[in-house]
Amino acid sequence: MRIVFMGTPDFAVSSLEAILDAGHTVELVVTQPDRPKGRKKTLTPPPVKEAALLRGLPVEQPERLRGSETVARIAELKPDLIVTAAYGQILPKAVLDVPRLGCINVHGSLLPSYRGGAPIQRAIINGETVTGVTIMYMAVGLDTGDMISVVEVPISDTDTSGTLFEKLTAAGAKLLSETLPAIEAETVKATPQNNDEATYAPNLTRDDERIDWSRPARSIYNQVRGLSPMAGGFTIWNGEPFKVWGCTAVKRGASAAEPGTVLAVSDDGILVQTGEDALLLTVIQPAGKKAMNAAEWLKGARMTPGSAFGAGGEA
């Protein structure tokens, strides 16, 4: 098949490579523009662009697909199929109508659950124990099209969004390889989604990173691992943002301590009261410093039991 591929992050790279390895021709790769990255704000190409250039594929990076010259380019190419994977923009009808075999999307959830831009992170944040990949026909709307194929992937208790990305990346590429022959043969039997069962996974914001100590320790633990390794959770210490990159929920009996109160400091880390049980902070990042083991920071920090996180205003 002649295919136009649209994707941006690492999650999409394996799907692009699966298409090429299966012998199909990728006529064009569409991805997001290069973005500033890191403390030095170095302009960095998205992973899909780097992978495409290594394969000698043409790449276009419209800031906004709708109304761009890329739409006309896709129409001129008249591909058999368009494949998207975490592209980051909704395709306009002018693009959806071009390929004779339709447009398909490799989505990192078990649809109709977790439609939207952050299904992997939010599945962990919400404490799910299983997720997966759905390949679906694209329609006008947010991940609403008919489902073609599905694979389940378990979420372990120690998974972060980083490790789950890796699992789903591999699962998605394999599922795509297994699905493309049926699409090419036009023997697909797609299943409509039950919209009544739909849930949503909107893109993460700064507020999603803020730790609310009144929540149960287990819930905060899920929040931190769902945000790692991209952002981490944060609280306030001495009026400054204080990031949490690693932690463990610790069962405890009833406590009179207010949520956010430091219960103990030790070589194991910082034990903090939550709304239910306690949270042991093991990897942290104080303002102006790099991420480090909590025990290392405690050697020179003035933190004592009875002090509290969360005071000092907004970050």
Which word captures the global form? elongated
Please state how the strands of the largest beta sheet are arranged side by side: 5-2-1-6-7-8-9
Overall pLDDT metric? 94
* Residue runs with pLDDT of under 50 for 5 or more positions: 311-315
Quick one: biggest sheet? 7 strands, mixed
How far from one another are the termini?
51 Å
Share of β-strand residues: 25-35%
Topology as a string of helices (H) and strands (E):
EHEEEHEHEHEHEEHHHEEEEEEH
Fourth-level CATH superfamily of the largest domain: Formyl transferase, N-terminal domain
CATH architecture of the largest domain: 3-Layer(aba) Sandwich
Helix proportion range? 25-40%
Q: Report the C-alpha radius of gyration, rounded.
A: 22 Å
DSSP E strands, number: 15
The structure class reads: alpha/beta
Number of domains: 2
CATH fold name of the largest domain: Rossmann fold
Binding site for (6S)-5,6,7,8-tetrahydrofolate: 109-112
Domain Formyl transferase C-terminal: 204-301
Organism: Paenibacillus rhizovicinus
Pfam family, one: Formyl_trans_N
Summarize the structure.
Helix content is 27%, strand content 26%. By secondary structure, it is α/β, with parallel strands linked by helices. The strands form 3 sheets. The protein has a 7-stranded mixed sheet with strand order 5-2-1-6-7-8-9, with helices on both faces.
List the helices and strands and how they pair.
Blueprint: E1 2-7, H1 10-21, E2 25-30, E3 35-37, E4 42-44, H2 47-54, E5 59-60, H3 69-77, E6 81-85, H4 93-96, E7 103-107, H5 119-125, E8 130-137, E9 147-154, H6 161-185, H7 206-209, H8 217-227, E10 233-237, E11 240-250, E12 262-266, E13 269-273, E14 278-286, E15 292-293, H9 294-298
Parallel strand pairs: 1-2, 1-6, 2-5, 6-7
Antiparallel strand pairs: 3-4, 7-8, 8-9, 10-11, 11-14, 12-13, 13-14, 14-15
Helix pairs in contact: 1-2, 1-6, 5-8
